[in-house]
Amino acid sequence: xxxxxxxxxxxxxxxxxxxxxxxxxxxxxxxxxxxxxxxxxxxxxxxxxxxxxxxxxxxxxxxxxxxxxxxxxxxxxxxxxxxxxxxxxxxxx
Length: 93
Known about the structure:
- It contains 2 helices and 7 strands, in the order βαββββαββ.
- By secondary structure, it is α/β, with parallel strands linked by helices.
- The protein has a single domain (3-92), classed as Hypothetical Protein Aq_1857, Chain: A.
- The strands form 2 sheets. The protein has a 4-stranded mixed sheet. Strands 1-6-7 form a 3-stranded mixed sheet.
- The chain is globular, with a radius of gyration of 13 Å.
- The relative contact order is 0.26.
């Protein structure tokens, strides 16, 4: 299952609050396709998980993963790095 660093938890909670997606909202990671055997991912805020999404909850942060994203990220850790007024997510083994 995808793990979240404390920094990622804080960033996701902040994004949910600022994004006005409501109390059931979270960061949704979905697959946008597969290229050269690698799953391409999209990150969006969502007011709720889509049907069939795997849900990862940690410290008040919620991440919704579609089937392909859940499989691709099963042994990964989501981290975040601040760059001025925005953040970049990284996935580590």
